[in-house]
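Bench log, entry 3. Co-assembly request; chain sequences pasted below exactly as received.
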Amino acid sequence: MLSRQLGAGALRRGASLPAFRQKNALNLSRGLAVRNASTASSSAFESFLNSRLTLVSVSLFTAGSVAWYTHLYGSLPFLAQVHASHASDEGLHPPEYPWDHKGILNTFDHASIRRGYQVYREVCAACHSLDRIAWRNLVGVSHTVDEVKAMAEEVEYQDGPDDEGEMFMRPGKLADYMPNPYANESAARAGNAGSLPPDLSLIIKARHGGADYVYSIITGYVDPPPAGVEIREGMSYNPFFPGGALGMARVLYDGLVDFEDGTPATASQMAKDVVTFLSWAAEPEHDERKKNGIKAVILFSALTLISLYVKRFKWTPLKNRKLIYDPPVDKKH
Amino acid sequence: MAFSTTLYNTFFQRNSVFFSTVFAGAFVFGIGFDTGVTAFYDRWNRGKQWKDIRHKYSETAAEEAE
Amino acid sequence: MAFNGLKKAVTLTPSVRTMPSGVPAAPLLNLAARAPADPHAHGHGASGPRSDVVPRWSGGISRSSSSLVSKSYTTLPSTTPFTARFMHTSVAVKGAPEVPDFSHYRADDTDSNRALSYFMVGSFGLVTASVAKSTVTEFLKTMSASADVLALAKVEVELATIPEGKNVVIKWRGKPVFIRHRTQAEIDEARGTKWQSLRDPESDEDRVKRPEWLIMLGVCTHLGCVPIGEAGDYGGWFCPCHGSHYDISGRTRKGPAPLNLEIPAYDFNDAEGKVIIG
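Structure output for the full assembly:
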């Protein structure tokens, strides 16, 4: 407190040095004398805060440190990152689409899954694998057992070793997983100008924005790219893709696929169906999960309410009990 | 005799009866609740699930449905 | 002496004892303690120290853990001037304690209240039991074989491709399975054997679902080798490892094998002419 008083006095009277010395001595002696009850310093502290000199010196200090930092490092912290980023680098934020399976009570539209499988098989499967889905997973979801068996038998799988120790090819069975279009990652990169087509089993879960994002990517190609955007040969411009340049070209055009149920195969219809199919592939347990969720919410809410009732019921006599002391009456009085 | 008294005398008076009722009731409730939720769920998602569209693709199922 | 001191320090002396006269003495229990008079207390609430504990300032007896150390019977002079209480200010003792009237809150019919309470407790138990049952079943389900294992656990074999009198060996769950399309002569031989006297007595009727199809695990019951088909003394299988002979029904007849060849679970699918093993 003493030093604050001193400082305030010093700042206020800093102009005249001799006077400052005198006042300083005075202040010191007075301060020592008046220490018994400390009351005065707050006003001095306030005047220190409000003083013009403080303002000026703090501003100078700030400007000085900014200038010093800039001199040392060339730029200010955080500013550089702001400058380096552009909205296009993050990709456009996909709009929200009203999926059939959106909402806590809704199942997948299985007819859409079936169409989506057709789109995947005829279009996407040329480049993209679906490692985590086996043929048997389609049974009872989008196809009957016989259909899936027939589809699986069209694909040859390597099996073995047989009695002679040789590997041999056999038609697919229900237990086999979806065939991979490429033998390995290098083959996939070689076939796609260096880009690796990602596995689609979990793509809906693996991308920020989920189904909306994948749908936007499939339908969001802009060709030719807008003015000012340069896209390398072999790449395509897609504003929803972070960075804008996507190794995959637009593949879905109206009428590319003939749906067996007569649904018009517009590009957006196919995209919606294949995204529904991929959502199912990422979450095969989805329908059952939501059903269990309904059950759990109902049961546990009921349990909570009843347990509250029972708790109150058990505690009511304890909390509302009044103990009354009835003193023995002295007969003599 | 009031309903509540009847209820008490029938189920609650003897602890053994009370407990048997609770566990038997839990069994029945489990089945009933499952059925109820499934019925609601199927009704809510009518036409979307595989069982709703299966008859279009499976001959045997179509025959069974008819 | 030192031992006694230690003993005293460790062992607490009883607070109640019987005097030689037979009168119980409990010097630490003060049964006659009274709360200090507080003219501002109107007979309720905590008005001072507990009435059953002697206040420290009132003297009396204090003790340490080892033994009685001090007795003081000094009555301290009051610090306030004593005045006789001429007017009676404390609350008069009432004939009956004043209890608020709860009758408004009481239910008219205690029976329905009782039934409701039991009902709620009962439904609580009911829902809990139901939830617990589901939890346990779901948990136990996680211990069963997963779907991809189950998908591999069944093998379908087309029977039309197996000619009469031929063996086929297929792989099922990592083990060989023998499928034998038996001829009528072989069936007659298998059925004609006196199986009651065999080492592992089993009739051929028990071992096959259809007499022409013999389906069994191709693992020797002795030490797990794979027997050779159409070999051995009995026209069935012969295990090259230790020389066990099986007949045309897969029953052990000779050699160290203790049991007949095992029969897996299988079913015929007539519509497609297949046998499903598993």
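Residues 286-319 of chain A form the longest helix (34 residues). The radius of gyration of chain A is 38 Å.
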